[in-house]
Amino acid sequence: MSKQKNTDSRLVYSTDGGRLCPQCLRTVVNCVCGSSKPAATGDGIVRLHRTTKGRGGKAVTIVKGLPLSGDALHALATQLKKKCGVGGTLKDDNIEIQGDQRAFLKGELEKLGYTVKISGG
Fold it and tell me: In terms of CB atoms within 10 Å, which end of the chain has fewer, N or C?
């Protein structure tokens, strides 16, 4: 019995060069996709963290794991800040919202169709 090679599989990691871009199939370092590079989807679950580290004791809610990038992520951040009525920022593809807004953000993100978990402090 001979083994047939699956022609539908897509290589995502190579021991020669590391992670590969899913769009252009080159190593991440040599990716030519530029700003149109797809967002890292992770496991598909959006996680809400509360942290005070390095902020003088003030709480910040961090939204991690959103499968968005670029303008779509910026638009969602603006929408969430307006709904919460507070400030915030985008850092490293994560949305930071001032204050402990985890319960409110969970409801808003679930309305938008995301699977959300509250995690962390």
Answer: N
